[in-house]
Amino acid sequence: MKLKEHKFGFDIFAAGLFLIIMLPNIIWFFVPAPHDILRNQSKTEVLDIFATIFQVLTLATLCAIKNTTAKKLGFSLCVIICAASCLAYYVAWIMYFCGIANGGVFVCLYIFPCAAFMLYAVDRKNLIAIIPITVFAVLHFTSTAINFL
Fold first, then answer.
1. Which residues 6+ apart lie within 8 Å of 42 measured at CB?
2. Strand, helix or coil for residue 8
3. pTM (2 d.p.)
4. Is 41 helix (H, G, I), strand (E, B) or coil?
5. Residue 86 to residues 4, 19, 20, 42, 120, Cα–Cα distance (Å)
6. pLDDT given for residue 18 in this prediction
7. Could you give the CA distance from residue 11 to residue 6 in angstroms, rounded to a whole number?
8. Contact call for residues 149 and 107 (beta carbons, < 8 A)
9. How far apart are CA 148 and CA 70, in angstroms?
10. What is the mean pLDDT of each run of 10 residues along the chain (149 residues)?
11. How far is CA 109 from the centre of its chain?
12. How far apart are CA 75 and CA 58, in angstroms?
């Protein structure tokens, strides 16, 4: 992969993926879960700010940058595992809303959206997006580990 193969353009599927990942977060914002420890004061506020910045950069690079050599979106292994990651993420949210708030659920809430974004970027050959996704994943993991594990 070469950087010169990347161009600006809107990727509607990346925007859709981001909305799929954000939907449970939006629901959680308006409908508190029982034993909702995600609403507790974070011990990593500065880290969380940087994670949010890289989450926005993830969205921007996934949606606004395309690799001209990427094949048409189809049912590749990366896309299938990306979809499975989204499904697993929803299962983790359902567990959380059912009152299950343990380390395993929090790891799933961290790992599956990051995996979905990474797999989508790999499938789309979006080398530029891989950078903020990786940084976001590391920051999100660190925050999750400190606050919930």
1. 48, 143, 147
2. strand
3. 0.89
4. coil
5. 31, 11, 8, 25, 11
6. 95
7. 12
8. yes
9. 38
10. 77 93 94 87 93 95 88 89 97 95 92 96 93 96 91
11. 9
12. 22
Q: Read off the amino acid at residue 10.
A: F
Q: Which amino acid is at 72?
A: K
- Name residue, tokens 């299950």: 100
Run of H or E residues at 24: helix 12-30
Among 7, 114, 104, residue whose Cα is nearest residue 64: 7
Taking the CA atoms of 136, 93, 85 and 16 in sequence, report the sign of the dihedral they define: negative
DSSP run (H or E) holding 66: strand 65-67
Provide CB contacts within 8 A for 79, sequence distance 6+.
73, 119, 120, 123
Distances in Å between the Cα of 68 and the Cα atoms of 6, 27, 83 are 6, 36, 23
